[in-house]
UniProtKB/TrEMBL annotation:
<keyword id="KW-0186">Copper</keyword>
<dbReference type="InterPro" id="IPR002227">
    <property type="entry name" value="Tyrosinase_Cu-bd"/>
</dbReference>
<keyword id="KW-0479">Metal-binding</keyword>
<dbReference type="GO" id="GO:0046872">
    <property type="term" value="F:metal ion binding"/>
</dbReference>
<feature type="domain" description="Tyrosinase copper-binding">
    <location>
        <begin position="98"/>
        <end position="115"/>
    </location>
</feature>
<dbReference type="GO" id="GO:0016491">
    <property type="term" value="F:oxidoreductase activity"/>
</dbReference>
<keyword id="KW-0732">Signal</keyword>
<feature type="domain" description="Tyrosinase copper-binding">
    <location>
        <begin position="275"/>
        <end position="286"/>
    </location>
</feature>
<dbReference type="Pfam" id="PF00264">
    <property type="entry name" value="Tyrosinase"/>
</dbReference>
<protein>
    <submittedName>
        <fullName>Di-copper centre-containing protein</fullName>
    </submittedName>
</protein>
<dbReference type="InterPro" id="IPR008922">
    <property type="entry name" value="Di-copper_centre_dom_sf"/>
</dbReference>
<feature type="signal peptide">
    <location>
        <begin position="1"/>
        <end position="22"/>
    </location>
</feature>
<dbReference type="InterPro" id="IPR050316">
    <property type="entry name" value="Tyrosinase/Hemocyanin"/>
</dbReference>
Length: 361
């Protein structure tokens, strides 16, 4: 075993290598901004770095940790890209990091390590953009947000129904992803995305963009001070804003199986990071949590949740909407599938403390 001094030095090198070193206090936090506040050059630079990750080779350190009978995903494709590896983490850990206490802290960490990967592997020097979809909610399909046809700085628009819903324009129109089978990024606007056969959707006729309106977010931010469980339950509700954005954009963001997927493909949010919109969407989810934390001192370090996903039936979900036993604490470690150093929930509760150093405009 390495002597403590050498071991500590090795850990510092490892954490620094992925931008996670917590030895220096956060003095000049980055300011994350809404996508539309980015200049054309800033948009192009973020997109360049994202596409760069999709050209880098597979990381053999990726080690799925969930039993395949639970994750129900294809095996790791060794010919895939580093970007695909990060997507695979989300696929593998989907049942652990949704509707559990891991949801908010894990996804906060996930966006952070993606940002650091952009920096350390592709030379990105900007900040993570967030997508304020409440701006677009009143007329989602026709919003100017989808006018990004520029091949360098545009996010692209809605998918082509005559070509497996692949994004036909913008910088991601040629971006290939590996899971659940190789294909080009897809989007399929879905007006009423909530499945009436699923008992977790009490309002199956709800219009998708009604689930992420400004009034919905105002109500969520009004959750009682210190009530982390109540706050997460509203934000991650099956017909709430988090899931509503995923399934309204659908395609890869919603996790629908592409035409060339294996016959045993099971849809769901597993491979939603395939669409780079995922990172902006989850930065917005994180911003809502950040805003709630700032509203009252009792919210800042509030945390509660279980480790088991409660979606087997409506009775269990109603009792444990953000995870059933065993219950997590701020000292619980978050799964990383061998890709990044393991952190605790408490490490990411404060965006200007621990390993994080950012705020939102």
């Amino acid at each position: 075993m390495l002597p403590p001094t050498i071991l500590s030095a090795a850990l510092v090198v490892l954490w620094s290598a992925v931008g996670l070193c917590a030895l220096s206090p956060c003095k000049n936090p980055q300011v994350r901004r809404e996508w539309r506040a980015f200049s054309t050059d800033e948009k192009a630079e973020w997109i360049r770095a994202v596409k760069c990750l999709s050209t880098l080779p597979h990381n053999p350190a990726l080690a799925p940790s969930v039993d395949p009978s639970d994750s129900v995903i294809p095996p790791v494709n060794a010919s895939s890209s580093y970007y695909d590896d990060i997507v695979y983490m989300h696929m593998d850990l989907s049942t652990r990091v949704h509707f559990t206490g891991y949801f908010l802290p894990w996804h906060r960490w996930y966006v952070h390590v993606f940002e650091r990967s952009l920096e350390h592997k592709c030379g990105y020097r900007g900040v993570s953009p967030y997508w304020n979809w409440t701006i677009d909610a009143p007329d989602f399909y026709e919003s100017s947000f989808w006018d990004g046809s520029d091949p360098v700085s545009g996010l692209g628009g809605w998918g082509d129904p005559n070509s497996d819903w692949r994004v036909p324009d913008g910088a991601f129109s040629t971006m290939r992803v590996s899971y659940p089978s190789p294909h080009t990024v897809r989007r399929d606007y879905t007006y009423q995305p909530f499945d009436e056969s699923n008992p977790l959707f009490p309002q199956p006729l709800l219009i998708g963009n009604a689930s992420f309106s400004a009034s919905v977010i105002k109500a969520i931010l009004g959750t009682s001070a210190g009530d982390y469980k109540g706050f997460q339950t509203m934000l991650e509700a099956p017909e709430g804003p988090h899931g509503g954005v995923h399934v309204t954009v659908d395609g890869d963001l919603g996790g629908t199986c592409p035409e060339n997927a294996p016959s045993n493909c099971v849809g769901g949010p597993k491979w939603s990071p395939n669409d780079p919109l995922f990172w902006m969407h989850h930065a917005m989810v994180d911003k809502i949590w950040y805003n709630w934390q700032q509203l009252d001192p009792r919210n800042a370090n509030s945390f509660f949740g279980g480790a088991s996903e409660p979606t087997d039936n409506l009775t269990i979900y109603d009792e444990y909407p953000n995870g059933g036993p065993p219950f997590l604490t701020v000292n619980s470690t978050m799964p990383a599938d061998g890709m990044f150093p393991v952190l605790t929930i408490g490490d990411v509760l404060n965006t200007t403390g621990g390993v994080l150093c950012y705020v939102y405009e």
